[in-house]
Amino acid sequence: MLATTTQGSATQPPLVLLHGFLGSSYDWRELLPHLSQDYYCIAVDLPGHGRSGDISIASPGFSDCVALLRHTLLKVGIPRFHLLGYSLGGRIALHLAQTWPEALLSLHLESCHPGLLSHDERHQRAMADKQWAERFNTMPIEQVLALWYQQGVFADLSSAERERLIEKRRHQQPLGLINCYQATSLALQQDLRQVPAKLAYPSHYYLGEQDAKFSALAKAWQPQAGFKLHTIADAGHNSHQAQPGAFATALKGALNAISRGE
């Protein structure tokens, strides 16, 4: 069973939150006060992360992640819920929506990739992920994190913000991170572009206006997926961290519209 952090009243509609790679349920702490008055928030520690750091998964690991989430949520009495996933958490949310669609009330994706389309893309990603796994396995975690947050997708972060993230992430368990990273590699993920369009409930996609890569990806994907796109001002790849108030306003607006049947 995966570790969870809850906030709000269990009498309110449930909202499950899935963090990104290197994160934990703690990553949502600034967002939860904005949401928990109206929604029962269940933030999950994914396998290899946070208090689920000792839970390993097979490779490919998406089915294991969905099975663990299903077991955890049913165990705590949450058979139906709204679902929000950021980055890796969004990719896992797409797999959950594909294989357990009847559990969802709505799907909310933040800065997540639907899947690579060509063999060459998958091969290149597999090689890059192998290098990252070797770094996590052989280098001090602080050094690996310093390299990780130099990637282009994090270009909006200041030096001070990078240092704060490194300090926050350095207590994770490297072996758990390596296992999850390799098992949920984008190179192993199928193309999930059609999933949102097949769902019987609304889908929404959230991105930071400074995240050029995922802005282009989401806009190209939107006609096929049919989701509503929300752009968060003055934010990069992790818009819920950069602008929790603005992100919460967009998310609550979407959730409230769903509750009204819009």
TrEMBL record:
UniProt-listed GO biological process terms: menaquinone biosynthetic process
Annotated Gene3D superfamilies: alpha/beta hydrolase (3.40.50.1820)
Tell me the enzyme class: lyase
Q: Which family does it belong to?
A: Belongs to the AB hydrolase superfamily. MenH family.
* GO MF entry, a single one: 2-succinyl-6-hydroxy-2,4-cyclohexadiene-1-carboxylate synthase activity
What's the name of the protein?
A: Putative 2-succinyl-6-hydroxy-2,4-cyclohexadiene-1-carboxylate synthase
Q: Which reaction does it catalyse?
A: 5-enolpyruvoyl-6-hydroxy-2-succinyl-cyclohex-3-ene-1-carboxylate = (1R,6R)-6-hydroxy-2-succinyl-cyclohexa-2,4-diene-1-carboxylate + pyruvate
Write down the species. Shewanella algae
Say yes or no: keyword rRNA-binding present: no
Do you know which InterPro entries this protein is assigned to? AB_hydrolase_1, AB_hydrolase_fold, SHCHC_synthase_MenH
Protein's job: Catalyzes a proton abstraction reaction that results in 2,5-elimination of pyruvate from 2-succinyl-5-enolpyruvyl-6-hydroxy-3-cyclohexene-1-carboxylate (SEPHCHC) and the formation of 2-succinyl-6-hydroxy-2,4-cyclohexadiene-1-carboxylate (SHCHC).
Instruction: List, for all copies, the residue spans of the domain called AB hydrolase-1.
Output: 13-240
Subunit comment: Monomer.
Q: Which residues form a coiled coil?
A: none
EC number in record: 4.2.99.20
Q: What keywords are annotated for this sequence in UniProt?
A: Lyase, Menaquinone biosynthesis
* Taxonomy of the source species: Bacteria, Pseudomonadati, Pseudomonadota, Gammaproteobacteria, Alteromonadales
Identify the pathway.
Quinol/quinone metabolism; menaquinone biosynthesis; Quinol/quinone metabolism; 1,4-dihydroxy-2-naphthoate biosynthesis; 1,4-dihydroxy-2-naphthoate from chorismate: step 3/7
